[in-house]
Design a protein that fits this description.
Elements lengths: L44 H20 L1 H8 L5 H23 L7 H25 L5 H8 L2 H12 L7 H18 L10 H24 L7 H23 L8 H29 L1 H4 L6 H13 L6 H16 L5
Helix pairs in contact: 1-10, 1-12, 2-5, 2-10, 3-4, 3-9, 3-10, 4-8, 4-9, 5-8, 5-12, 6-7, 6-8, 7-13
């Protein structure tokens, strides 16, 4: 996923249920604007390798646990409120970074108008949909549905982005990926025992990301500003959107149970703020190709966390189908030399 000269923030090719920044759906995340790593001459090579591997592992765990945190959050709060807390604490984390750096938010009505649409497509809608989906489906299934995002992205980019030509390998990856989806859903059993509405909402959430990525690529690719500034502004707009929606469709919580509250705070501050900062550093230090590999660990960790900590049921077709989905997604991301 060559780094362009534009300050478009890097992001994972799936997201998240985790993605909040401005990726391109068909190219690697751009490291432009990411915090620069320490000069190689001042850091021992072994230390550098150890550092980025540890951060890679931590990032995988944080994003993999996001679906468990959503599940726990919905035990006490309405889905819109979980999504609101997520973007609020994420925005708070990034705005704190901007304050420390004395870096301003983006300027211009046009930029903020595009950020408003990006916030709706990349944060407000998918975060809410995942929260609603997990009212009726396991967090592990939500994590696997999230992994279909690059499949939707490739399918859409073939239509929406004229420079992105299909290859037999990528088309094969698309077909393989959706075969994996059918395996996860147990298509040969007539989808029995599956909550159709919750699964559809999770898949729709995964579809929101590539739509948002294509929109951002067309409208914000040359916008001045660092990744943190653009992403922080986007999360700030999403906070306002979800605050308005929550005020209309939900009632204020009467209590704030400890674990659901901590889950929502962690989901935002760690899963959005801290995780994005770590990702910027990884892209700069080891390159986008290596950094984006974190994507393929997310459903594995999400499934493991759901089974071990939430006692969710795991049937053979779930891990097998997830492996097929990830193999297909990996093929769709390959490009000609």
């Amino acid at each position: 996923m060559s780094a362009p000269s534009t300050p478009v923030p890097p992001s994972t090719p799936v997201s998240p249920g985790t993605s909040t920044s401005h990726p391109s759906p068909t190219s690697s995340p751009a490291p432009a604007g990411a915090p620069a790593g320490a000069p190689a001459a001042k850091v021992h090579p072994t230390t550098r390798r150890l550092d980025w591997r540890l951060r890679f592992a931590v990032l995988s765990v944080i994003w993999g646990f996001s679906f468990l945190l959503i599940k726990v959050g919905t035990e006490a709060y309405a889905p819109f409120q979980v999504a609101l807390g997520r973007v609020f604490f994420g925005a708070l984390a990034l705005l704190t970074v901007l304050l420390i750096r004395r870096e301003p938010l983006p300027r211009g009505r046009r930029t903020w108008a595009h950020l408003t649409v990006a916030a709706l497509l990349l944060n407000t809608a998918p975060f809410s949909l995942f929260a609603y989906a997990e009212l009726s489906i396991p967090s592990s299934l939500a994590g696997i549905c999230n992994a279909t995002s690059p499949l939707w992205g490739m399918a859409l980019s073939l239509v929406a982005l004229s420079e992105d030509r299909p290859t037999r390998r990528r088309v094969a990856g698309l077909g393989l990926g959706f075969l994996g989806v059918l395996t996860v859903l147990g298509a040969w059993q007539g989808f029995s025992g599956l909550d159709a509405k919750g699964t559809a909402l999770a898949l729709l959430a995964a579809l929101c990301y590539p739509i948002g990525w294509i929109y951002v690529r067309r409208t914000l690719a040359s916008t001045p500003g660092s990744p943190v500034a653009l992403t922080g502004a986007q999360l700030l707009v999403s906070t306002l959107q979800l605050a308005a929606v929550s005020a209309v469709f939900t009632s204020a919580p009467t209590s704030f149970p400890l674990w659901p509250t901590l889950s929502v705070i962690a989901l935002g501050a760690l899963g959005t703020g801290m995780a994005l900062q770590m990702q910027y550093g990884l892209v700069t230090e080891v390159g986008p190709t290596t950094a984006q590999m974190v994507t393929y660990f997310i459903p594995v960790i999400a499934t493991t966390a759901g089974v071990l900590l939430l006692d969710e049921q795991l049937h053979w077709n779930t891990p097998v189908g997830a492996a097929v989905v990830l193999a297909g997604a990996a093929l769709t991301q390959t490009r000609r030399r």
